[in-house]
C-alpha cells in the first residue's frame, strides 16, 4: 500500500471551485495508485472570522470553548472535500480529530500532538482510498477539542506522515521555497531541494512557506516534505535531511526579511551576572517575544540591545520602568527597523559570508544596528526604509 | 439538584446580541438555583446555507458527509453560547454529540436517538452549572456523526429531559401554542395548557411551534414541555399529558392551515382489494408522502382521491402512467388547494364538530373537495384562495 499525505491550505479551499480543484488533484493521486491522507485547513479566512465572532462576545474568550468553536472550520472544509470526492466516484471519508484519534496535550489554543493512532488510520485506509483529516486540531485524553496554534495544519500533516512513514506534500498558494521572497527580488531562485536546517531558519525568520514546528517534526522523523502550489503544475521544492549528492551545496540558500521591528537599548547596567538574567526572565514571564539580543561590556557597566515587535512595546515599557529603577539604568526605544537574515547550512564550511554581507551594507552606507549570528545564519537589523533595497543587493552579491 | 432542559431555536441565536440574550436567560435560571442543560440550534439559517454549499459541489451529497458538515452549525452556536456564559461568570461547558454521548441509529440525515448516557451527563452537572449541548445531532456506535432531520433540536431537548427526568423549556420566536396562527386570525387564543394529543395533531397539520417527534417522545416519557418566546417575558404554553383539573377541556383546541396541496383523483379502478394496496405501496416506495385519502366504491369500480404536495407531482405522474395502464383507469390532478384541520381531544366526548364545520363551509358556499377524520381531528380540503377566509370563520364559529 503506497500512502502519501497531502495538505491543502486555507487559500486552496477558499471557495467551491477551489475545492473541486483540490478534489481533482487528490483523485489524480489515487489514479496513480496511492492511498491519500488529505489534511485540509479551514476555508479561506474562516478561522479569523470565528475568532472575531468569539471576541465580539467576550474580550478573552474561554480557551477550551474557543477551540470547540475553531475546530468546526476544518470539519466544514473536510466534509466538503469528501462530498466532492464522493461525487466524482472516489471512495473517501472525512474524519475529525475525535475520529482520527489525534491525541494532544491539554494546552488549549496551543496544544502539541502526543500521539496518533496509526493502526486505526490503517484500518480506514484498507476500506477507503482517501481519508480527509481535519488539520490544526486534536483531542485531549478526556475528550476535549484542542487546536495546535497558527500553522497547525502543517504540523498535523507532517505528524501524520511521520506516523504513516510516508512523504508529505504541502500545497499552498506559494510555488516552493525561494532564495528570497520573489515580491522583493523578482530574480529569486526557486530551490529544487533545501535542507531541514535551512528551512527551519528561513521559516523562523519570516519565510511563510512552512510553519517551523512542522519542519522540526519532519527533521526529527526524517519525513520528506514537498512544497508546491495547488494552483499550478509547476515543480515545487523538496525539504530533506541532506541534498542529493549530485547537487553542490550552496553557501547561502535564502535571504529573508522581517519588517516591523523595534530596538530596545538599555545602558549602564551594573556588571553582575544576575542582572541580565533577571531582566530577560521578567520579559519572558510577561510573554514578550525577544528576538535579536546583543550585549557589550564596557569597564564597569553593561549595555544591551534587543528587538521586539511593536505590539510588545506597551508591556515592555511598563516592565522596564519597574525593573530598571532598581539598577539606575536608562533605556531607549528605537524604530522602525527590519531584520534581514542570510541563511545557509553551507556557511558551516565556508568563510566570508559575514564580511560579504557587511560589504553590501557599507557600499550602501547603511550601518547595521544589531548583528546576531548562528552556525548557519547571520541577521542584521537595518532601517526599515532601506531594507528592500538591501535585500536586492544582498541577493545579487550572493548570486541568489 | 434541580435540573431543567432549555432549548433555543435558530432564530433565538441568529446574531451576537441574541446569543447574549440567550446567555442572560440561562444565567437567570442558574441564579434561581437550577442546573441547566441547554440545547442550542445552529445560528439563523446556517443549516440551509451549509446544505446549499454541499449541493453546489454535488447534486446528491453523500449523506454521511452531509451530516459531518451540518453538525458543525450547532457546535459553533454552542461554543459561542458557552463563551458568553463564561464571560458573565457562569460555569458552563459546551458538548457536541460525541462528548454528550448521544447515540443514534445509522440513518444519516434522519437518525433516531437510541440512548443518551445520563450518568455521564450527571457527572458534568456535578462540575458545571450549565451544559450547552448541540441539538439536532448524534453519533453512531462506530463513531460517525448523524443528524435527526428537520426540527431535530426539539427532539434532542425532549430526549435529554426524558433521560434526566426533568421539564423541558422550548424557546423560539413564537410565544406559545395558539388556537390558530395569529397571522391568520389575530383574535386567536393562546392556551396556557394543551395536551400531547392535541399538540401532536396540530404539529402534524402545520402548526410550527413544536416538531411532532419531540411531542411523541414527551408523551411516551411524560415530559412536561413549556413553549415560549426567547424574545419576551410573556407566559407561554405547557404541553402536558392532561389538562389541570380546574381547567374545562375545550372541544376544539386548534385550527391549522396547510397550503399548497394538490388533489389526485383516480377513477374506475377495478373493485379488488389488492389494487388499492398495490398503488399506495408503489407511491410509498417512491418516497412520496400522501396525506388525505378518501375512497368511494361504486358498483363495479372504485374511485380514490388523495392529496400530495406539488413537489411530488412529477414522480407520481410517472408512477401512475406506469401503473394505471394495467388497470385501464384514469387519473387527474387538481390544484391549488389548502387543508384546514380542526383539532381537539374534547371531540371524543362531544358531538357536532363535523356538522358545525360543514355549516361554516356551506354558509360560505364552499364545497369541500375531501374530508378525512380521526378521533380528535377533522380535515377538509378547500380551494386555496378561500382558505384564509374560512379559517377566520371557523375560529369565530368555535369561539377560539
Automatic annotation (TrEMBL), chains A, B:
Entry keyword set: Amino-acid biosynthesis, ATP-binding, Kinase, Lysine biosynthesis, Nucleotide-binding, Transferase
One Pfam family linked to the record: ACT_9
Similarity remark: Belongs to the aspartokinase family.
Domain Aspartokinase ACT: from-to ranges: 340-398
Protein name, UniProt field: Aspartokinase
Protein origin, superkingdom: Bacteria
Residues given in the record as ATP binding sites: 7-10, 178, 183, 208-209
Transmembrane domains' residue ranges: none
Pathways per UniProt: Amino-acid biosynthesis; L-methionine biosynthesis via de novo pathway; L-homoserine from L-aspartate: step 1/3; Amino-acid biosynthesis; L-lysine biosynthesis via DAP pathway; (S)-tetrahydrodipicolinate from L-aspartate: step 1/4; Amino-acid biosynthesis; L-threonine biosynthesis; L-threonine from L-aspartate: step 1/5
PANTHER family from the UniProt entry: ASPARTATE KINASE (PTHR21499), ASPARTOKINASE (PTHR21499:SF3)
Annotated Gene Ontology cellular component terms: cytosol
Binding annotation for substrate: 47, 74
Organism (species): Fervidobacterium nodosum (strain ATCC 35602 / DSM 5306 / Rt17-B1)
Catalytic activity: L-aspartate + ATP = 4-phospho-L-aspartate + ADP
InterPro entries from the UniProt entry: AceGlu_kinase-like_sf, ACT-like_dom_sf, ACT_Aspartokinase, AKii-LysC-BS, Asp/Glu/Uridylate_kinase, Asp_kin_monofn, Asp_kinase, Aspartate_kinase_CS
GO molecular function: aspartate kinase activity; ATP binding
Enzyme Commission (EC) number: 2.7.2.4
One record GO biological process: lysine biosynthetic process via diaminopimelate
Domain Aspartate/glutamate/uridylate kinase span(s) in chain numbering: 3-228
Amino acid at each position: 500500500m503506497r500512502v502519501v499525505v497531502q495538505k491543502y491550505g486555507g487559500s486552496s479551499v477558499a471557495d467551491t471551485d477551489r475545492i473541486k480543484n483540490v478534489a481533482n488533484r487528490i483523485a489524480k493521486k489515487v489514479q496513480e495508485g496511492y492511498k491519500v491522507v488529505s489534511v485540509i485547513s479551514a476555508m479561506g479566512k474562516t478561522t479569523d472570522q470565528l475568532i472575531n465572532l468569539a471576541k465580539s462576545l467576550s474580550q478573552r474568550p474561554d480557551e477550551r470553548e474557543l477551540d470547540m468553536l475553531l475546530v468546526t472550520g476544518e470539519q466544514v472544509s473536510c466534509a466538503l472535500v469528501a462530498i466532492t470526492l464522493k461525487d466524482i466516484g472516489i471512495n473517501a471519508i472525512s474524519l475529525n480529530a475525535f475520529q482520527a484519534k489525534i491525541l494532544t496535550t491539554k494546552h488549549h489554543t496551543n496544544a502539541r500532538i502526543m500521539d496518533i493512532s496509526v493502526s486505526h488510520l490503517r484500518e480506514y485506509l484498507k476500506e477507503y482510498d482517501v481519508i480527509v483529516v481535519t488539520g490544526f486540531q486534536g483531542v485531549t485524553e478526556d475528550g476535549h477539542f484542542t487546536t495546535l496554534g497558527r500553522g497547525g495544519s502543517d504540523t498535523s500533516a507532517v505528524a501524520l506522515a511521520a506516523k504513516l512513514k510516508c512523504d508529505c506534500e504541502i500545497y499552498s498558494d506559494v510555488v516552493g521555497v525561494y532564495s528570497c521572497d520573489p515580491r522583493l527580488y523578482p530574480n529569486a531562485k526557486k530551490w529544487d531541494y533545501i535542507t531541514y536546517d535551512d528551512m527551519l531558519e528561513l521559516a523562523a525568520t519570516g519565510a511563510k512557506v512552512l510553519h517551523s514546528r512542522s519542519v522540526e517534526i519532519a527533521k526529527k522523523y526524517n519525513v520528506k516534505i514537498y512544497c508546491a502550489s495547488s494552483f499550478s503544475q509547476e515543480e515545487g521544492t523538496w525539504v530533506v535531511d541532506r541534498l542529493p549528492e549530485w547537487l553542490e551545496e550552496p553557501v547561502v540558500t535564502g535571504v529573508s526579511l522581517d519588517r516591523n521591528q523595534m530596538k530596545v537599548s538599555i545602558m549602564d547596567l551594573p556588571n553582575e551576572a544576575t542582572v541580565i538574567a533577571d531582566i530577560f526572565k521578567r520579559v519572558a514571564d510577561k510573554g514578550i517575544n525577544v528576538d535579536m539580543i546583543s550585549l557589550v561590556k564596557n569597564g564597569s557597566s553593561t549595555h544591551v540591545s534587543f528587538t521586539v515587535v511593536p505590539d510588545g512595546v506597551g508591556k515592555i515599557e511598563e516592565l522596564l520602568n519597574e525593573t530598571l529603577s532598581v539598577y539606575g539604568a536608562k533605556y531607549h526605544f528605537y524604530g522602525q527597523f527590519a531584520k534581514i537574515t542570510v541563511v545557509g547550512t553551507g556557511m558551516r564550511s565556508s568563510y566570508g559570508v559575514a564580511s560579504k554581507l557587511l560589504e553590501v551594507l557599507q557600499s550602501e552606507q547603511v550601518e547595521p544596528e544589531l548583528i546576531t549570528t548562528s552556525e548557519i545564519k547571520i541577521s542584521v537589523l537595518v532601517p526599515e526604509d532601506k531594507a528592500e533595497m538591501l535585500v536586492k543587493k544582498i541577493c545579487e552579491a550572493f548570486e541568489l
